[in-house]
Amino acid sequence: MTSNEIRIDRRTAVVGAGAIAAAAALAGCSTYGNDSGAAAEVAPPADGPAGALAKTSDVPVGGGVIVGDTVITQPTAGTFVGLSATCTHAGCKVAKIADGTINCPCHGSRFGLDGSVSSGPAARPLPPKPVRVEGDSIVQG
């Protein structure tokens, strides 16, 4: 063997190929659907009634926010909708609301502001969660 030849045994090749495949899979799953927009997650308001999730002013018309395990949208002015933040495809938490859709980062499912499926792989809508307006707050129930 000359100094320019490299010898690789079968074990080294299999281990190396497995490590490359695992790294590629992790990189692909962690970045699918990400874009540079801001996250929709907000903290519940410190002031307000018990069970307050957000202020009505926090929820843009034609958009929404994510508070814990609840998505709150405002499809039209003054109409607030509560939905589960758990994607119906594989149980991932939705991560962003942009351009009129609620977006799951795991496999790219998109839901309308009413929870309906806009694009899969999810086949079922986001389940509703009851919310109501009390003063300037949106509360559970």
TrEMBL record:
Domain of life: Bacteria
Pfam annotation, one family: Rieske
CDD domains membership: Rieske
Gene3D superfamilies, alphabetized: Rieske [2Fe-2S] iron-sulphur domain
Keywords carried by this UniProt record: 2Fe-2S, Disulfide bond, Iron, Iron-sulfur, Metal-binding, Signal
PROSITE patterns noted in UniProt: PROKAR_LIPOPROTEIN, RIESKE, TAT
Cofactor: [2Fe-2S] cluster
Domain Rieske, chain residue ranges per copy: 51-140
Protein task: Iron-sulfur subunit of the cytochrome bc1 complex, an essential component of the respiratory electron transport chain required for ATP synthesis. The bc1 complex catalyzes the oxidation of menaquinol and the reduction of cytochrome c in the respiratory chain. The bc1 complex operates through a Q-cycle mechanism that couples electron transfer to generation of the proton gradient that drives ATP synthesis.
Name this protein carries in UniProt: Cytochrome bc1 complex Rieske iron-sulfur subunit
Signal peptide location: 1-27
Coiled coil feature spans: none
Sequence segments annotated as region (Disordered): 118-141
